[in-house]
Design a protein that fits this description.
465 residues; alpha/beta; TIM Barrel; two-stranded antiparallel sheet; 17 helices; 13 strands; globular; disordered N terminus; monooxygenase; flavoprotein; monooxygenase activity; Luciferase-like_dom; LLM class flavin-dependent oxidoreductase
Length: 465
């Protein structure tokens, strides 16, 4: 088999493929937890997760990606009742707890989990993620999250949700602490492991960071020795202006939910320009487009599965999720109101994505709600590949695959879509060696253009110890 990081016979580099899910009953937010293909996977069972990880690696997926949050959706009707009834990302377990176990049954699959900057101090998070990077031999990624949920903020002692700009300022301070700890506090020469002298590490090569920021303070040094990647691969999903600015500086990959290739192209053009303005290269940033699909041996078979999904959809679940993400109780809104009339401080990126997809059309709340659990493409493996190819043509470099009818859909995706995607050079047929970052960029550590690189050896330069 060919080395897939090189150009294929079709003249393209394979896209990266991530499976999007949550560590909760329904997997995809708003999709029915009780569908047969959803019940095939039990989020409470380690055996079930291990089986899924094996199947993803056999299909040559790059990563599994877990969305996550630390609150409960309680905006709709001013209550969490609809969320609880319909299992809309509730209950939800900690996805990072799965990582080390899944690493034992896979060799190449990456593990990207979301972690909110308000959930734990940056020192504690740096220790946890470095430990996981050691245990997986460098296959960990972090989706940097700033929470819009009032319940999440109240769960950790805050009375109100910080404004949008402040949430990203907090995130910037948080990642600086993580960067300094994992890139700056241990020099490359620090670990000695000299069996003759009994010296494990050189004290002169391990340094305090003495970070005092607007939101966080940390003395350091990191208490974990450098892991294979030092830093996890850095993801970010914010599409607001503040989110894009943060991603341009910090992210190595972003997730977008464009409604069509035109919308994706608009995001990509903007982000490439922002990345260059930060002194980075355009190709320093991978762009993953959401792909929600249902595939069958024939188009008729796929449509029959999609109809089963539609019949099982509960509008209450969609309304509960969309109300929370928009920061607006949709039980009190005329659903035929254009979303352009909304001014919200919650997930601004959702509205931006819709506007960029159809700038000449006034999307209504009803259209937004109805499309949440509607697959973007239904058909054969060839039709799925056509859809992916259209996004690849505008510069998308990865696909974030969501199975709205349950993770059991992976079996048909693997059977019908994967071979065609591989035949067209859109998906890898073999893994490259090394860490997740090495597979994607050729180096185990962030490149010199990333802001974290500026902290390397800085402690030695300023004389802290």
């Amino acid at each position: 088999m060919q080395n897939d990081d090189h150009d294929t016979a079709q003249g393209r580099r394979p896209l990266r493929f991530a499976l999007f899910t949550t560590n909760s009953p329904s997997g995809f937010p708003g999709s029915p937890w009780s569908q047969p293909l959803a019940r095939d996977h039990d989020y409470r069972s380690l055996d079930s997760w291990m089986d899924l990880a094996r199947k993803l690696e056999a299909a040559r997926f790059d990563t599994i990606f877990w969305a996550d949050h630390s609150g409960v959706y309680d905006t709709y009707e001013g209550s969490r009742d609809a969320t609880v009834r319909q299992a809309v990302q509730f209950p939800i377990n900690d996805p990072s707890a799965l990582v080390s176990a899944l690493a034992t049954v896979t060799e190449h699959l990456g593990f990207a989990f979301s972690a909110n900057v308000i959930q734990e101090p940056p020192f504690s998070f740096a220790r946890r993620v470095a430990t996981l990077d050691h245990l997986t031999k460098g296959r960990v990624a972090w989706n940097i999250v700033t929470s819009f949920q009032m319940s999440a903020w109240r769960n950790v002692g805050h009375e109100t949700v910080a404004g949008h700009a402040e949430r990203y300022a907090r995130a910037a301070d948080y990642v600086d602490v993580v960067y300094k700890l994992l890139e700056g506090s241990w020099e490359d020469r620090a670990v000695v492991r000299d069996l003759t002298t009994g010296i494990y590490a050189d004290p002169s090569a391990i340094h305090s960071i003495d970070h005092v920021g607007e939101f966080y303070s940390s003395a350091g040094p990191a208490v974990t020795e450098p892991s294979p990647q030092r830093l996890p691969v850095l993801f970010q999903a914010g599409s607001s202006s503040d989110g894009r600015a943060f991603a341009a500086r910090n992210a190595e990959a972003i997730f977008i939910g464009a409604k069509n290739p035109r919308g994706a192209a608009s995001v990509i053009d903007d982000m490439r320009a922002r990345v260059r303005d930060e002194g980075r290269h355009s190709d320093d940033l991978l762009v993953f487009q959401q792909l929600s699909c249902i595939v069958g041996r024939t188009e008729e078979e796929a449509k029959a599965k999609a109809e089963e999904l539609r019949a099982s959809i509960n509008d209450e679940a969609n309304l509960a999720y969309t109300s929370a993400t928009m920061g607006l109780d949709l039980s009190a809104v005329d659903l035929d109101t254009p979303i352009g009339q909304l001014d919200t401080d919650a997930m601004q990126g959702k509205l931006r994505a819709l506007a960029e997809a159809a700038p000449d059309k006034a999307w209504t709340f009803r259209e937004v709600v109805s499309t949440l659990t509607a697959p973007q493409v239904v058909g054969t493996g060839e039709q799925i590949a056509d859809y992916v190819e259209a996004y690849a043509a505008v510069g998308v470099t990865g696909m974030n695959v969501a199975f709205l009818n349950g993770l059991g859909e992976l079996e048909d995706f693997t059977r019908y879509a994967v071979p065609e995607l591989q035949r067209r050079g859109l998906m890898q047929t073999e893994y490259l060696p090394g860490t997740l970052r090495e597979k994607w960029s050729g180096s185990p550590r962030v490149n010199e253009r990333h802001p974290a690189a500026s902290y390397r050896r800085i402690a030695a330069e300023i004389g802290h110890s």
